[in-house]
Amino acid sequence: MNFADHVNLSDWHGQCLLTVDDFELHDFLDDLFTEQGHEAQIVHPSGSPTQYQLLFAPGISRATVYRLLCEVGPGEIDRIVRIKSRASTNPGGGA
To answer: Which residues neighbour 57 within 8 Å (Cβ) at sequence distance 6 or greater?
Structure first.
């Protein structure tokens, strides 16, 4: 299930798997879920260097992860991704 352009929720052997296509977004979401008491295992999919995944414990449902993503909102997710893309297109740091 796509939550936003850069975020997908799926089921992996009965566990919630969150896949994102941006490292900064992955880091932000990992911190967010950890702060909420929902630590996840970081998964590095083979053959896909542009995907970052968090695998949640069996007791953490997709509904729980979806609810927390809704608190962040698609707009904030897009903003985080845009920050990285602006930094990579402007390596000198000027505006």
So the answer is: 15, 39, 40
